[in-house]
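User: Hi! I'm working on a homework problem where we have to compare a predicted structure to a textbook description. Could you give me the structure for the chain below?
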Amino acid sequence: MSYTAGFRQNRVTIRNKVVATTFGDVAEYQDVATVHAAKTWKHGAKAMREGALDAYDSVIFRMNWNNIVTRDSLLVCDGKTYQVLSLNGDRRQNEIEILAQEIVESESAPAPKPSASDI
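Assistant: Happy to help. Predicted structure tokens:
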């Protein structure tokens, strides 16, 4: 089923890896395109693992077919970053469906402040 542009109301920035050295070390991700996509929440989960709260949400993005998105791409939508889990595209139908998972960076605990007895 192909969606019209009216259903694709989210702006998604596609970020791909940039190789910085001749040895193949990846330095960072770079914005390569911004496209319109339909965003559908698949499911979410929260769990305590090793004393920390892990939270992630799975999202399905549907956009016009392109060869820019790869399994190593990151997608940025509404200020959140998503890692591509799987791609399912059909060039004849001009559509690509991407299953992605939100990347949640845990905040480290603040360092304890020194007390008067430590000085």
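For your comparison, note the following. The chain has no helices and six strands. The domain at 5-105 is CATH 2.40.10.270 (Thrombin, subunit H). Good luck with the assignment!
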